[in-house]
Write a structure and sequence with these properties.
The structure holds two protein chains of two kinds.
Chain A lengths: L11 H14 L10 H18 L10 H7 L3 E2 L9
Helix pairs in contact in A: 1-2
Chain B lengths: L11 E6 L8 H16 L5 E4 L7 E6 L15 E5 L10 E4 L4 E2 L5 E2 H12 L28 H11 L25 E5 L2 E6 L2 E5 L7 E4 H4 L9 E5 L4 E6 L2 E6 L2 E2 L5 E2 L14 E5 L4 E6 L2 E6 L4 E2 L5 E2 H5 L7 E5 L2 E6 L2 E6 L4 E7 L7
Parallel strand pairs in B: 1-2, 1-3, 3-5, 6-7
Antiparallel strand pairs in B: 4-5, 8-9, 9-10, 10-11, 12-13, 13-14, 14-15, 14-16, 17-18, 18-19, 19-20, 19-21, 22-23, 23-24, 24-25
Helix pairs in contact in B: 1-2
Classes of the chains: A mainly alpha, B alpha+beta.
């Protein structure tokens, strides 16, 4: 059986998570210098939204099951909101 | 459904294929798209007419990377395609990522499956979180010959456009829920310490050290296996699992279907009067495998690789009143028989039923 992928190396995970949530969960990334914690809360909230949609453990963390789901080939239409 | 409930004002829609992927014959692309449109026209009053030029409601094209719609593709893998909700101009249009390997089978990305999904968006559907639904966001290959539009998708599209004009309304497969008390199984087997429960085109995978049950399409792991497996058992010593459907069987060696299968079940010693096997389990302590058909059972010797004499016998004579067997497996010295939503625990040493449970007792509900 395909086993869960080895933990991504630290460098790639944030990029993968960020672009996935931007593409499919309307994560807004503004590049103003902000309190790091605020940005992380926003990302964690979006991550929970994605985990909720896919019936994964909702922990706001890019765990293995979440990363595995993010790497599956999929439709480019967002999972929330309109696509016009 | 999509926020704002966008839908086409007319039921008779037009579509146009603007360009063709070089990886498939044009005729195969046309056929895949027509089949994908029929998925939706079969369950609604919608009709689709192909036009060769000018503006159509649904314009389909194969494009690379950034194709100037603010939603660039991302190379091979990742995003496969996207489509826009009903509306003027780009509304309803479908874009396929030309960086994918488009195919008519499962060797690459199956065009029919992706087109059927994207056309759901073109008609006003959004993504479903039902893992068995066509409108689930991630791609899963299903043999186009076996494809049936799931009930979740039928409900969605009929909520927008109403039912089809057919006298008998089509229905679709429903995704099994592990804790649904009415859940029954087609077949069950162990596999290298795990237990796999088969239902339609799905398999529920239970690992002893994981609390939750994993639901997958059978085709995700074994694209060559059909859906609707009727019996299965593991031969632990040979590290093989045998799957049965109608009068054929397949052998899984390790994690792959062995070449040269399916073979007819008659090679195992069944007479031609037997048309299917309902359930099977193998007792690794005795090397005997038990096959269940109708109200009888057969015993097969895995070492001699032949049926034992004096069989078939009546199930009730050896296993008691368990009725017709839908599925069976052996675990930790006990045999578990499934009949509808009832499960019997049989002790081969005491030769009697020692327990009775619900069919879903393994899923920590």
């Amino acid at each position: 059986f395909p086993v869960a992928p080895e933990a991504e190396d630290e460098r790639k995970t944030p990029k993968l998570v960020e672009s996935y949530l931007q593409n499919f969960y309307d994560l807004q990334i503004d590049h103003q210098p902000r309190l790091r914690s605020t940005g992380e809360n926003h990302l964690s909230a979006k991550l929970k939204e994605m985990q909720e949609f896919f019936g994964l453990q909702v922990n706001g963390k890019p765990d293995l099951d979440t990363l595995e789901m993010m790497q599956k080939p999929r439709c480019g239409v967002p999972d929330i909101g309109q696509y016009a | 459904l999509t926020p704002g409930n966008p839908k086409w004002k007319r039921n008779n829609l037009t579509y146009r294929i603007l360009n063709y992927t070089p990886e498939m014959r044009r005729a195969d692309v046309d056929e895949a798209i027509q089949k994908a449109l029929r998925v939706w026209s079969n369950v609604t009053p919608l009709t689709f007419q192909k036009v060769e030029d000018g503006e159509a409601d649904i314009m389909m094209s194969f494009v690379y990377g950034d194709h100037r719609d603010y939603s660039p593709f991302d190379g091979p893998g990742g995003m496969l395609a996207h489509a826009f909700q009903p509306g003027e101009g780009i509304g309803g249009d479908v874009h396929f990522d030309e960086d994918e390997t488009w195919t008519k089978d499962g060797t690459g990305t199956n065009l029919f499956i992706v087109a059927a999904h994207e056309l759901g968006h073109s008609l006003g559907l959004s993504h479903s979180n039902d893992p068995g639904a066509l409108m689930y966001p991630t791609y899963s290959y299903t043999d186009p010959k076996e494809f049936l539009l799931p009930q979740d998708d039928i409900d969605g599209i009929q909520a927008i456009y109403g039912q089809s004009d057919a006298a008998v309304q089509p229905t679709g497969p429903v995704t099994p829920q592990p804790c649904d008390p009415s859940l029954t199984f087609d077949a069950i087997t162990t596999l290298r310490g795990e237990t796999i429960f088969f239902k339609g085109r799905y398999m529920l995978r239970k690992h002893p050290s994981r609390a939750e049950t994993e639901l997958n399409f059978i085709s995700l792991f074994w694209p060559k296996l059909p859906s609707g497996i009727q019996a299965a058992y593991e031969n632990v010593e040979r590290d093989e699992v045998l799957f049965f459907k109608e009068d054929k069987y397949w052998v899984l060696r390790g994690y792959d279907i062995a070449p040269g299968y399916p073979k007819p079940i008659y090679r195992l010693g069944f007479p031609k009067t037997v048309k299917r096997v309902n359930a099977a389990y193998s007792d690794e302590t005795t090397g005997k495998t038990y096959f269940f058909t109708a109200d009888r059972y057969w015993r097969y010797d895995e070492n001699k690789r032949s049926m034992d004499h004096g069989y078939p016998k009546k199930i009730v004579s050896h296993f008691g009143k368990i009725g017709r067997v839908d599925a069976a497996f052996q675990k930790d010295g006990y045999v578990y028989f499934f009949h509808g939503t009832t499960q019997f625990q049989f002790d081969p040493r005491a030769k009697r039923i020692v327990g009775q449970m619900k069919s879903i007792s393994w899923f920590n509900c």
